[in-house]
Amino acid sequence: MQQEAITMIAVGKLKLADDKVRDELGDIAELAASMKSVGVLEPLLVREDGLLLVCGTLRLHAAKDAGLSLAGSAVGSDA
């Protein structure tokens, strides 16, 4: 995937691909607490057409649990 600049995207607008849905997320409380205090340190990877999540399922769920409305995302067109 060719990456472009990091963009802040509303986490509620991102969609999970069928192959990115996890049955078990594990304990993401520590990750969510870290995100709440310092934000998302590694951007999510998303496709620009429809904002489909390519990589970062756990980070997306942790960002939602932390109450973040925006997350840094690398948007690419070749995923």
Task: Please provide a brief summary of the model.
24% of the residues lie in helices and 32% in strands. It is built from 2 helices and 5 strands.
Task: Report what the structure shows.
- The chain has 79 residues and is of the alpha/beta class.
- Helices cover 24% and strands 32% of the residues.
- It contains two helices and five strands, in the order E-E-H-E-E-H-E.
- The chain has helices spanning 29-38, 57-65; strands at residues 3-10, 15-16, 44-47, 52-55, 70-76.
- Strands 1-5-3-4-2 form a five-stranded mixed beta sheet, with helices on one face.
- Strand 3 and strand 4 (52-55) form a beta hairpin.
- Helix 1 (29-38) crosses helix 2.
- It is globular, with a radius of gyration of 12 Å.
- The protein starts with a strand and ends with a strand.
- The mean pLDDT is 84.
Q: Enumerate how many helices there are, as a single number.
A: 2
Order of helices and strands: EEHEEHE
Main beta sheet: strand number and arrangement? 5 strands, mixed
Instruction: Determine the strand fraction and express it as a percent band.
Output: 25-35%
The general outline is globular
Return the structural class: alpha/beta
Fraction of helical residues: 10-25%
Distance between the termini: 5 Å
Low-confidence stretches: none
Number of E-type strands:
5
- How are the strands of the largest sheet arranged? 1-5-3-4-2
> Residue-averaged pLDDT, rounded?
84
Radius of gyration: 12 Å
